[in-house]
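[job 4471] stage=fold_predict status=RUNNING
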Amino acid sequence: MTKLPTIPADWAAHHAIHYQFLANQQVMLQDDQRVAAYYQGIAKNRADFADKIVLDVGAGTGILALFAAQAGARKVYAVEPTAVAEQAKQLVQQAGLGTRIEVIQSRVSELELPEPVDIILSEPWGFFLLHERIVEAVLDARDRFLKKNGRIFPCRARLWIAPFCDPRLYDAWRTKVGFWQQSDYYGIDLSRLEQAAESEIMSMPALGPVDPRQIMAPAVAYPLDLETMDRQQLGHIEIPFEFGFGFDTPIHGIAGWFDVEFLGSGGSVTLSTAPIHPPTHWWQLRFVFTEPIALRRGDVLRGTLGLTTNAQASYDVSFDGILNGSERLRPTTFRMESYTWWSAPVE
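[job 4471] inference complete, writing structure tokens
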């Protein structure tokens, strides 16, 4: 089991700077799919929150803590490491819930609470679920503060992957590489840097909307149970896959997305970031191959997509595949924190 590397202080500080601004909080609050799922996931399970003690990890402006109080929570500890905690206090006071919601500006690793909690409530998801490595803080809080048989909302998550075909995306990435082939750039030979540029550019995932028609085989899922999994399991995850193809097609890489599930006594609510669902601010993430893979009807692609934590608050991603049981494909690695926005031009 891979030991989780410590996130350097400068990366933690960068994260704090990013999320302390209300403009960045607004992006999340205006994500209707996100907010509605959390509201419904809590409201549908009011019986689980009634008269309970709740810990909101990464509270931001305190919206989820307010939802928990509306559902009848007796006490909510809203923990937020950035300066936006001051704005959360204002919203709590304006709602008249200052005696039931206590906003605490602290990192989870430095947090002390006067009592254990019945429920942990959080929205720690980054792109492809795990970017920014905030899920670790939720499991840390679980191990330190959650009562035996306590609950986490959402309690389950799934990573989804599928092969995609998108010539325009692939061409855009190769065009970036092509810039470095110039031997006479104002009299300077850039071509010496082409190999390094290719390695860097092709390791950069594409963040943005995926047309469902670009998915070339049924997606496979990797489940995560946030209530039971060992925190160290987040250090390295291997997603096994087997994709069968019913038609001839090239594939240009692997697309990834996630969903999370609220499961309580009142029922289940799922928040999905899949291409077939309305968009969220997480979109989908695509890992672009250095060279396309030409597939024919009846071909089977097996292998693993590996995710290993790095010190940049994210993951290194590796693709290892075998075609039709014998042809080993070129291994490819990506750096999730170097994602680049991509949206196809309107035709």
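[job 4471] summary: The longest helix spans residues 167-179.
[job 4471] exit 0
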